[in-house]
Amino acid sequence: MKIATWNVNSLKVRLPQVLDWLAATQVDALCLQETKTEDSGFPFAALEAAGYHAIHNGQKTYNGVAILARAGLLDEARDLPDFADPQKRLIAASLGKVRLVCAYMPNGQAVGADKYEYKLQWLKVLAAWLREELQRYPQLALLGDFNIAPDDRDVYDPVAWQGQILCSEPERAAYRALLDLGLADAFRLFEQPERTYSWWDYRMMGFRRNHGLRIDHILLSPALAKRCHACSIDKAPRRLERPSDHAPVIAELDD
DNA sequence: ATGGCTTGAGTGTCAAGA
Q1: Residue A82 pLDDT grade (very low, low, confident, very high; cuts 50, 70, 90)
Q2: In the annotation, is A116 catalytic?
């Protein structure tokens, strides 16, 4: 079973790339972030024709998350409970016994900004909610754009980024709080090439210079981590014309 | 130099991303 996550930075623009990628990789489930559309603009028909069911929690212009899967998605949930928030950043559903949680975590803008406080609050509420979800769904995967580079090796220039947004200690502590729930970073379960990232700035030839950050992650509960035999970041879509600034992350689980 | 691209909104130019 292959599960994946990809921040597409507008599904309207990236749909052809998503369809090509699904055909090439044949993943069983793909979590999308930044669809940037309401449900009325979501390409359900094109995805069905490609063999994928979809659920979507969308909004106009910003955010928007979806889960695509080859089999039916059951027990759908949207948004964080007990957290009044108009921003559409979370959707979850079950694929068989595997619980998929797709999240687009806030960017935070800058350390100390209002959006930064919102980010930390969002992460705190997420962790509290996940604690309960893990009881209910022992085989749980949290996939998405975390907007956090967990470690200096996930940053192309750790000195320049030290203490900055996406790398600050409170953000990294919030990430570690997710690990403290028992979740494991699928990517770090395996030996990986150095300087592997999942996002590169559009500006200043970020991708060509590999000026990137690893901020997109797949976290697995103990029961799923045991089943995981590979995890990688697929840089191929980032090389295409008009790419998303993020690359997809894939984890492979024993059936 | 807080820039540099890209997107969506909407038709001039700005917010937001990371």
Answers
A1: confident
A2: no
Q: Which residue is nearest to nucleotide B6 (CA to C1')?
A: A202
Q: C1' nearest to CA of A104: which nucleotide?
A: B17
Q: Characterize A103-126 residue by residue with b for buried, 16 or more Cβ atoms within 10 angstroms of its Cβ, and e for exposed.
A: bbbbbbeebeeeebebbbebbeeb
Structure tokens at A84: 């009044």
Query: What are A103's two structure tokens?
Result: 């999240």
Chain B nucleotides with an atom closer than 7 Å to a protein C-beta: 4-9, 16-18
Residue among A240, A149, A160 at smallest CA distance from A199: A149
Model pLDDT for residues A181-210, shown as the tens digit of each residue: 999 999 999 999 999 999 999 999 999 999
Cβ-based burial of A255 (10 A; exposed 0-12, middle 13-18, buried ≥19): exposed
Helix or strand or coil: residue A54?
Answer: strand
Q: In DSSP terms, which residues pair with A66 in a beta bridge?
A: A32, A56
Residue found by looking up tokens 């940053």 in the block: A155
Q: Å between A180 CA and B17 C1'?
A: 29
Residue A246 DSSP label: B
Assess contact for A22 and A4: CB atoms under 8 A.
no
Q: Both tokens of residue A209?
A: 């210079």
Nearest to A215 by CA among A185, A236, A251: A185
Angle, CA of A131, A127 and A177, to the nearest 5°: 105
Distance of A234 CA from B4 C1′ (whole Å)? 26
Specify the 3-state DSSP secondary structure of A143.
strand
Q: How far in angstroms lies nucleotide B14's C1' from the CA of residue A201? A: 20
- pTM of the entire structure? 0.98
